[in-house]
Design a protein that fits this description.
By secondary structure, this protein is an alpha+beta fold. It is built from three helices and three strands; from the N terminus they run ααββαβ. The longest helix is centred in the N-terminal third of the chain and has 8 residues. The structure holds adenosine-5'-triphosphate and magnesium ion (MG).
Length: about 90
Amino acid sequence: MDFGEVIARGTPQEIQTNPKVIEAYLGKGQPMLLEVEDLNVYYGAIHALQGISFSVDQGEIVTLIGANGAGKSTTLRTSPVCSARAGGRAVPR
Ligand SMILES: Nc1ncnc2c1ncn2[C@@H]1O[C@H](COP(=O)(O)OP(=O)(O)OP(=O)(O)O)[C@@H](O)[C@H]1O
Ligand SMILES: [Mg+2]
């Protein structure tokens, strides 16, 4: 079902692989909104982020959890703007 409409019928296997069902649950193959690859951030000699990689797809809700001082704020501050100097790559799209 999708918005009250039956979009597929069949065996569980047929439903699982039906493109309309996949699209209804996961959305169309939208481009990545943000892709961070091997991000390293230093505060002087402190290597705060060590090779962080993640991606955020359109429509996704991503949470970042970790202990105090793990690097959550640093990740949020630097991911969209990380530079070659920081030793990584962020590709906002
Ligand atoms: N301006 C700064 N100068 C030096 N070190 C810093 C600075 N900001 C953060 N750090 C260090 O970098 C590491 C990551 O800190 P960050 O604030 O990103 O962690 P956090 O996961 O957001 O912590 P919290 O849960 O306390 O908010 C910690 O070891 C912290 O002490
Ligand atoms: Mg924080």
